[in-house]
Amino acid sequence: MALTAETESRLYRSLRAAAGASAHLVALGFSIGVAVLARPGSSLFSWHPLLMALAFSFLMTEALLIFSPETSVLRSFSRKVKVRAHWVLQLLALVCALLGLGIITYNKHLNGKAHFVTWHGLTGLLTMLYAGGQCAGGVLLLYPKLMKNWTLAKLKLYHATSGLVGYLLGCASLMLGMCSLWFTTSVTSVSWYLAMLCPLLTSLVIMNQVSNAYLYRKRSQH
């Protein structure tokens, strides 16, 4: 028997809700797993993976899921509250990432190692620069009058699209970090593949959320 349009819509929303809930759990679980593995405080380096996992797996994922109509933890709150929470989470993510970058840079200096010579290091640096620019660009949404020739709707669309690129860069940096000697000597076999799936899953959920927001905007224009 063919599904009705209403049933298909309900099924689609249910699947989106399940995927969003999974993204919440995966983002938190991955960060906890990295914390257990790194044992923060055991060495200077140990803070680097923890801070980067918090920044790009947990805080940034939560900052973007804030706007999910199905799985936002602030679903019943106004958009103004969601925007403020988004800003706070993104700033916390940026602070954690900056601390993580500073720690690994200083740790390499102490050990006489070269900086930014691996794909992980180069991608991480690019991600940091991009994240800083993205946060600065977000100011334009708070003060849209600074961009007189741009409508607020366009600014929101470009900010969301640009934010998705930054998020994907962050996930790519995490995945490259999981190819490092430190990670591969501690996490092997099936566990390594499961860890790699974590940023992939959250990326798919976030991409779906952004694409749906874009399609909704296109429909509202017609």
From TrEMBL:
Segments forming domain Cytochrome b561: 11-217
Enzyme Commission number(s) from the entry: 7.2.1.3
Ligase as UniProt keyword: no
Domain of life of the organism encoding this protein: Eukaryota
Keyword annotations: Electron transport, Heme, Iron, Membrane, Metal-binding, Transmembrane, Transmembrane helix, Transport
GO terms assigned for molecular function: metal ion binding; transmembrane ascorbate ferrireductase activity; transmembrane monodehydroascorbate reductase activity
The protein's required cofactors: heme b
InterPro entries linked: CYB561D1/2 (IPR045150), Cyt_b561/ferric_Rdtase_TM (IPR006593)
Protein name per UniProt: ascorbate ferrireductase (transmembrane)
Native source organism of the sequence: Eolophus roseicapilla
Lineage of origin: Eukaryota, Metazoa, Chordata, Craniata, Vertebrata
Annotated gene: Cyb561d2
